[in-house]
Amino acid sequence: MKKLELIYEGKAKRVYRTEDEDFYVMEFKDDATAFNGQKRGTIKGKGELNTKISAVFFEILEENGVKTHFERLLSDREMLVKAVKILPLEVIVRNLAAGSMAKRLGLQEGTKLKSPVLEFCYKSDELGDPMINAYHALAMDLATKEEIAFIEETSFKVNEILSQFLIKKNIILVDFKLEFGRFKGEILVADEISPDTCRFWDAKTMEKLDKDRFRRDLGNVEEAYKEILSRIKS
C-alpha cells in the first residue's frame, strides 16, 4: 500500500493517506511524552516495539470478536489501518489503583479494585484531556447514547480478554487507555495498545513494565518494552 501525504502527527504517531480512501498508514515514533506533554524525551526503538506489541493485541482482540482498525503490518514501524474517524473520547479501564486515580482518591498504588472502573476523558490537548462522564459526552455530542453503551461494553470485553491473556504471561493489566473510531457505520477499537497506553506489572515482582518507567525516571525503559513484546509473543 503506497503511503501518500501526512494527514496527522501526534505525540507518538504519524498518519498518512494511501491511494485507497478506506485505509491509512500509521507510523510509530520513538518520541515520548508524559504529563500532558510537559515531559518530553526519546525511547530508543519504542516505535518498532509499540508497532509489534499493538499488532499482537489487535490480533488477539479480533480473534475474540472485537473489531479493530488494524489490517496488517507493513514494516517494523508501520501498520495499515482502516481510515476511522477518531471519536474525541478516551476510555480508561482500571483494575488496580495507580497513577492519577490513586492520587485523586487517596488510594495506595496497587490497591485491587472490587470491580473494574471505566472513566471517560475528553480528547483535548489544550485542556489537558479532562475527565468527563457519559452525560458530558452526550451533551457535547461526542458520541450517541448507543455508541457510548457499545464503547462501555466493548471496553470491558477488551479488559477481560487482555487480562486473561496477560496473566498467563505473568503480567498484570493494571489499567489501559482505549480510543475508538467510526468506520462505515461501525465503531472500532483504534489507535494503539502498548506500554505507552497501558500499565503492565510483573505478576510476581510488581515491577513496572510500561511508560511509568519514563514518567518516573526509573530507568530501563527500553528493556521493559522489549520484555513485554518478548512475553506476549512467547
Automatic annotation (TrEMBL):
Keywords: ATP-binding, Ligase, Nucleotide-binding, Purine biosynthesis
Coiled-coil stretches: none
Enzyme class name: ligase
Pathway(s) it belongs to: Purine metabolism; IMP biosynthesis via de novo pathway; 5-amino-1-(5-phospho-D-ribosyl)imidazole-4-carboxamide from 5-amino-1-(5-phospho-D-ribosyl)imidazole-4-carboxylate: step 1/2
Keyword DNA-binding: no
E.C. no: 6.3.2.6
Cited InterPro entries: SAICAR_synt/ADE2_N, SAICAR_synt_PurC, SAICAR_synth, SAICAR_synthetase, SAICAR_synthetase_CS
GO biological process: 'de novo' IMP biosynthetic process; cobalamin biosynthetic process
One of the record's GO molecular function terms: ATP binding
Domain SAICAR synthetase/ADE2 N-terminal residue range list: 6-231
Catalysed reactions, as listed in the record: 5-amino-1-(5-phospho-D-ribosyl)imidazole-4-carboxylate + L-aspartate + ATP = (2S)-2-[5-amino-1-(5-phospho-beta-D-ribosyl)imidazole-4-carboxamido]succinate + ADP + phosphate + 2 H(+)
Signal peptide: none
Protein family (similarity comment): Belongs to the SAICAR synthetase family.
PANTHER family, sorted: MULTIFUNCTIONAL PROTEIN ADE2 (PTHR43599), SI:DKEY-6E2.2 (PTHR43599:SF3)
NCBIfam families for this protein: purC
Name of the protein in question: Phosphoribosylaminoimidazole-succinocarboxamide synthase
Organism for this UniProt entry: Fervidicola ferrireducens
